[in-house]
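Try it yourself: sequence plus zinc ion, in.
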Amino acid sequence: MYLCLTKYRLRNFMLQTLKTYFGYDSFRPLQEEIIHHLLNRKDALVLMPTGGGKSICYQLPALLNEGTTVVVSPLISLMKDQVESLCANGIAAGALNSNNDETTNAALRRACMEGKLKLLYISPEKLLAEINYLLRDMHISLFAIDEAHCISQWGHDFRPEYTQMGILHQQFPEVPIVALTATADKITREDIIQQLHLEKPKIFISSFDRPNLSLTVKRGYQQKEKSKAILDFINRHSGESGILYCMSRSKTETVAQMLQKQGIKAGIYHAGLSAARRDQAQDDFIHDRTQVVCATIAFGMGIDKSNVRWVIHYNLPKSIESFYQEIGRSGRDGLPSDTLLFYSLSDLILLTKFATESRQQNINIEKLQRMQQYAESDICRRRILLSYFGENTTQDCGNCDVCKNPPQRFDGTIIVQKALSGIVRTEQKIGTSMLVDILRGTLSSEVAERGYHHLKTFGAGREVPARDWQDYLLQMLQLGYFEIAYNENNHLKITASGSDVLFGRASAQLVVIHREEASEVKRGRKRKPSIPVQELPLGLPHTESEELFEALRQLRKRLADQEALPAYIVLSDKVLHLLSTSRPTTLEAFGNISGIGEYKKKKYGKEFIELISKYY
Ligand code: ADP
Ligand code: ZN
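Structure, out:
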């Protein structure tokens, strides 16, 4: 029906619908092209990073088309979140899944058959079960396959049910299909197209850059220092939601206990907990009853919470894909968010062991090496990430630790010689922790047992703190002065270039270590998320009041609790900042705020402008 409109009129119509329902004034890159393509009833594959704005790509066509758009989604929590936020914008949507009781499902079925829903979310199992029943009785405008990477065995979230969806195109040849994912690698991409039998699909790849996420790596920290750094970090983010990823289940528990002891509300999430406990942990986080979730990688796919302000990786992830997806869960609303990764030799050794013992050994080792490259980078870290996804940039980002504090080097020859001589004098039969003990002159029982305290190097590096030794050793590994023999109890072996330094034939440049947490805390640095001026409505004041922001936050919480909705679904953090910065006092000005559509304007406008008026 839209083909008859001129391009100009269609564009206006699309923009108008975007404003009315979602409150946005313009499209993000690619959204408009994708929507246009789908309105022309053609297939598409959409690759966008988490938070890039995939949902609007099928939700807007759903509103513009007659009939119902069917969205296949792998997780009930994802469906719930999407349906809640659609309904909060006054859009008729529902989710058909095994969690519903029969009455709810019967009502939904009826609504579908009567054409009353604009969007129906459905699990792949239910979709296959209903393919010859309910789906036949509906007028379907579009199929959207969300999290489409679940179709691929190569991906990390493989779902066998997804592989059977090739049948959709056979059964409904006239209905276009859009597959959407944030996982960009090539094999997965081809798998999706092939398995869904997409017909000459257009592939839309948006930039994977997430400039609002700051990137920081801390190297060589041992447990105690990590705990301290984490507490400092969370104090700087007081009251702000965040996720702390750990490699093991037990670690999530000990870290959560450590935080709880400090009065921080922290929950736990891992695959070893019962489904009920996992759901509870997720729900507590979404509704801001806990501030932090300490989780394994099992946590996250169902999380659409837009105001996660930070992500910490307690351990090194095993690939850049996982890392990027995990940090991508912060800052979905586009506001500044912080990410912090701890990088230690012991993690590297353990992950290398896992990768070596895995079935796809070569691929996994290669992936780990790319992750290592990120952690060890002394050039802009964002450039490493983007180049991994095939994007080449010509500029440094200015929002990673390397850009902010470019590494300074010094002549570290003596330090390197001390370490290497420790390795030689123990006949290359020790690992890193024993080496640090020897250098520091720590008489551990193992050192004593092997008589290493009689060595000349024992205590030769006493002046350097243990954690700095860990950092220097990582640097030396990166510089290729020694290797780790993973098949020989992770013993350290000197390389030819290491020998050159040891015997004075070459010098070694090391990077100066900065330890800045203490001073940051003293300064009480809590950075306010700032809204770019061009996003602020014209003709209104532009200074943010923290007091007003807090009051708005409380009002939002009260309204959300009344409806048993997560606060960010009522209004996002970004909208709250826009409100406290521009302070609208009329309904019209309230409705002009980006992110407030007609429905929310009518529903919440009065209470918010009354509150704002008190702050003039
Ligand atoms: P994804 O599914 O790609 O992870 P979402 O669809 O959840 O991302 O979108 C992320 C955030 O960006 C949401 O808060 C959404 O409302 C917002 N958003 C999407 N499109 C636009 C737009 N055109 N203008 C402003 N905000 C947008
Ligand atoms: Zn950078």
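One thing you can check immediately is this: The pocket of adenosine-5'-diphosphate (ligand 1) is lined by residues 24, 27-28, 31, 48, 50-56, 304, 306, 332-333, 572 (CB under 6 Å).
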